[in-house]
């Protein structure tokens, strides 16, 4: 087996924070080791080499390495460089923090085994990273969101909601909003459902967590796309299940290589696969539904970016083709309108609704009633449909703007994968040996991206950078790509 490639593109640093760069590097290396992304015995780059690639001082790298050597994460031998320790310290799941340790007393009962698992995913927590920089994925065009209209709807509902709406809120969600969502899905996605089949949730992440918690038992198997959402794997593992990565091709997820045994749950993003963007073909949709009926398993259909398609006719949602009641359909308004809205929904067979509503009640009761009411008006008065039409046109232009700038400034040095749907594209260096230079140049130029390896479950996917385009106008895109390409070619020419 060839040696694993050092995941350089997973290392990203924040300049607008009080935390020193060496400490940021320490924490990220600890995380990579804890998650198995750096294996025992794997050789790390030299301090000089890593400093050059990251654009940091050699002393910064050496300080981080020395701390991890002292903690037992790394080991060094004369003539063979620095490697991940063969035997990791017992405390490798407990990130070093002198500030936290100073507050500890002799009494420290610790977390449960399940609680300890959460420590491994602490680095997924978002930070206050300042203004959005090109080309951060997942961000809609906030500069084109109708804020005055939303403010008017919110203030109106704040005045008009009766007192009982503030005292007792259905944990399934505000009934008029559930009806508005049912009407919208029937008209736009062909998903015929009633308001009684819908539970309003705090976005897609809560939806995934509820599905994993309520439908999975320890030892169950979950199939998911690879590359795909890592939070699906996390939630399934927390429920004691095992996530099986399935490769994707031009027709979407391919389960021919799946190991023997019946899955309990299959998670798919058929409208616009995250992060590569292809649609699941109609033939595979039919086959997947047949498989679910035969094996009596659930399909969680995440209709991610189903609203944003720029070429061709959209294929019907899986839920619209489901005759066996195997599909649970999820969607979110957070990525369509604005991220902090935290309103999404699950559509499910009615026998499941009571349990999911109870889970919502125990977790956080319900979403804020006036936000649900304002969104109801946004939907029923036609504002949502008009906003979607405008955003489809705008995003198609912004996608093409990014393609044009990348082509002009990088030329034949890169390959661009721009799917006909979604809010992101994938960029790869045509020469695989230059991928790290492409990522390092992005950091130098202040470019935000998500490494494709961040979403690779099996670690078998080729390297790439995921770029969002929806939030950035033509002028900002052009300037950012110009600076990035300049930094990239200077790195290439210096070697």
Could you describe the 3D structure shown?
The chain is an alpha/beta fold and 495 residues long. It folds into 3 domains: 8-91, Orthogonal Bundle (Arc Repressor Mutant, subunit A), CATH 1.10.10.10; 146-382, Type I PLP-dependent aspartate aminotransferase-like (Major domain) (Aspartate Aminotransferase, domain 2); 386-493, Alpha-Beta Complex (Aspartate Aminotransferase, domain 1). Helix content is 41%, strand content 13%. It is built from 17 helices and 14 strands. The chain has helices at 21-34, 47-54, 58-71, 98-101, 113-119, 147-160, 163-167, 175-188, 204-215, 230-238, 282-295, 318-321, 350-364, 369-380, 383-410, 435-444, 474-493; strands at 74-77, 81-84, 198-201, 221-226, 242-249, 252-253, 265-268, 298-302, 327-332, 344-347, 414-417, 424-429, 450-451, 465-468. It has an 8-stranded mixed beta sheet, sandwiched between helices. β8 (298-302), α12 and β9 (327-332) form a beta-alpha-beta unit. The radius of gyration is 24 Å and the shape is globular. The two termini are 29 Å apart. Residues 91-108 have low confidence and may be disordered. This is Transcriptional regulator, GntR family with aminotransferase domain. It comes from Rubinisphaera brasiliensis (strain ATCC 49424 / DSM 5305 / JCM 21570 / IAM 15109 / NBRC 103401 / IFAM 1448).
């Amino acid at each position: 087996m060839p040696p694993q490639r050092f995941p350089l593109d997973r290392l990203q640093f924040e300049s607008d924070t009080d935390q020193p760069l060496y400490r940021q590097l320490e924490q990220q290396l600890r995380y990579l080791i804890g998650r198995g992304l750096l294996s025992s015995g794997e050789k790390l780059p030299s301090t000089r080499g890593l400093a050059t690639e990251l654009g940091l001082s050699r002393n910064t790298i050496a300080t981080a390495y020395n701390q991890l050597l002292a903690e037992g994460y790394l080991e060094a031998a004369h003539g063979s460089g620095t490697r991940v320790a063969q035997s990791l310290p017992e405390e490798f799941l407990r990130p070093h923090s002198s500030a936290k340790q100073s507050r500890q007393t002799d009494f420290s009962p610790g977390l449960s085994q399940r609680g300890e698992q959460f420590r491994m995913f602490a680095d997924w927590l978002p930070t206050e990273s300042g203004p959005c920089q090109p080309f951060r994925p997942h961000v809609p065009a906030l500069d084109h969101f109708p804020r005055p209209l939303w403010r008017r709807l919110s203030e109106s509902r704040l005045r008009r909601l009766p007192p009982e709406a503030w005292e007792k809120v259905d944990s399934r969600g505000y009934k008029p909003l559930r009806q508005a969502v049912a009407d919208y899905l029937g008209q736009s996605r062909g998903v015929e459902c009633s308001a009684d089949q819908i539970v309003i949730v705090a976005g897609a992440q809560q939806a995934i967590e509820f599905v994993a918690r309520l439908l999975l038992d320890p030892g169950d198997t979950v199939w998911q796309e690879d590359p795909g959402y890592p939070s699906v794997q996390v939630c399934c593992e927390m429920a004691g299940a095992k996530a099986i990565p399935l490769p994707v091709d031009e027709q979407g997820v391919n389960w021919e290589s799946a190991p023997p045994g019946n899955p309990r749950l299959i998670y798919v993003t058929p409208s616009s696969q995250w992060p590569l963007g292809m649609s699941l073909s109609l033939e595979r949709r039919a086959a997947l539904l047949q498989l679910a009926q035969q094996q009596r398993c659930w399909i969680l259909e995440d209709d991610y970016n189903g609203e944003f398609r720029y070429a061709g006719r959209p294929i019907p949602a899986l839920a619209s083709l489901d005759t066996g009641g195997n599909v649970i359909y999820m969607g979110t308004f957070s990525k369509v309108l604005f991220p902090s809205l935290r309103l999404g929904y699950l559509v499910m067979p009615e026998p499941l609704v009571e349990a999911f509503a109870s889970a919502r009640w125990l977790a956080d009761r319900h979403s804020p009633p006036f936000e649900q009411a304002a969104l109801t008006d946004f939907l029923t008065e036609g504002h949502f449909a008009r906003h979607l039409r405008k955003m489809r046109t705008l995003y198609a232009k912004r996608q093409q703007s990014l393609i044009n700038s990348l082509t002009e400034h990088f030329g034949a040095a890169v390959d661009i994968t721009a799917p006909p749907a979604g809010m992101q594209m994938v960029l790869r260096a045509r020469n695989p040996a230059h991928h790290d230079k492409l990522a390092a140049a992005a950091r130098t130029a202040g470019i935000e991206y998500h490494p494709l390896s961040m979403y690779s479950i099996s670690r078998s996917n080729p390297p790439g950078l995921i770029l969002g385009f929806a939030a950035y106008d033509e002028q900002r895109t052009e300037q950012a790509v110009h600076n990035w390409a300049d930094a990239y070619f200077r790195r290439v020419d210096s070697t």
